[in-house]
């Protein structure tokens, strides 16, 4: 449709945004996530912090480990931060973990991988892409599981009560 209005724009090489601008865009995205998640005003800073921590952990993990194993490390760091946030009192770890995971999943799996997975290609290549997507998803989940081993969730148990309060026990 673009060609009906005029010639196609010239093709340019992709260049990364400056780090400060990337940081600002991530922070604005975190504020947008707090609105989408119906976050309380007191939690906006923590939601933005979860997004920025996930992005920073993702970049650092890719520098240290490359593409293999870095989703596990980034999810682990995010999980530990969320579980430590939960220990501050009447707070939920998902306030930090959920926005961070929404940052990590597309960052590691990538839009190009998903488009390639959905696009046409050879059968062997599609199986390999599917395996890589599933491997990254498994690493993200395992990172959170390992975080709960290092920093176990804290439940306030009443004496003699085998079920945490609010768990639906009769």
Give a structural overview.
The chain contains seven helices and no strands. The chain is mainly α and 170 residues long. Helix 5 packs antiparallel against helix 7 (123-150). It is globular and about 70 Å long.
Attribute tags:
single chain, 170 residues, mainly alpha, 0% strand
User: What order do the helices and strands follow?
Assistant: HHHHHHH
Largest sheet: none
**Low-confidence segments, ≥5 residues, pLDDT <50?**
none
Structural class: mainly alpha
Percentage beta strand: under 5%
- How confident is the prediction overall: mean pLDDT? 79
The end-to-end span amounts to: 63 Å
Helix content: 55-70%
The coarse silhouette is globular
* Number of strand segments: 0
**Separate helix tally:** 7
Q: Roughly how many Å is the radius of gyration?
A: 20 Å
Topology:
Blueprint (H helix, E strand, L loop, with lengths): L1 H4 L13 H18 L7 H22 L4 H17 L7 H16 L1 H8 L4 H28 L20
Short description:
The chain has 170 residues and is mainly alpha-helical. The chain contains 7 helices and no strands. The chain has helices at 2-5, 19-36, 44-65, 70-86, 94-109, 111-118, 123-150.
């Amino acid at each position: 449709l673009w060609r009906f209005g005029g010639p196609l724009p010239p093709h340019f090489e992709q260049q990364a945004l400056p780090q400060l601008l990337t940081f600002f865009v991530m922070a604005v995205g975190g504020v947008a996530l707090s609105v989408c998640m119906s976050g309380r005003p007191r939690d906006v800073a923590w939601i933005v912090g979860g997004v920025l921590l996930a992005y920073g952990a993702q970049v650092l993990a890719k520098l240290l480990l490359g593409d293999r194993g870095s989703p596990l490390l980034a999810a682990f760091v995010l999980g530990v931060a969320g579980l430590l946030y939960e220990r501050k009192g009447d707070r939920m770890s998902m306030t930090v973990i959920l926005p961070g995971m929404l940052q990590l999943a597309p960052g590691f799996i990538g839009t190009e991988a998903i488009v390639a997975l959905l696009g046409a290609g050879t059968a062997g290549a599609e199986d390999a892409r599917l395996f890589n997507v599933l491997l990254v998803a498994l690493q993200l989940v395992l990172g959170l599981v390992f975080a709960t081993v290092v920093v176990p969730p804290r439940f306030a148990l009443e004496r003699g009560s085998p079920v945490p309060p609010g768990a639906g026990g009769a």
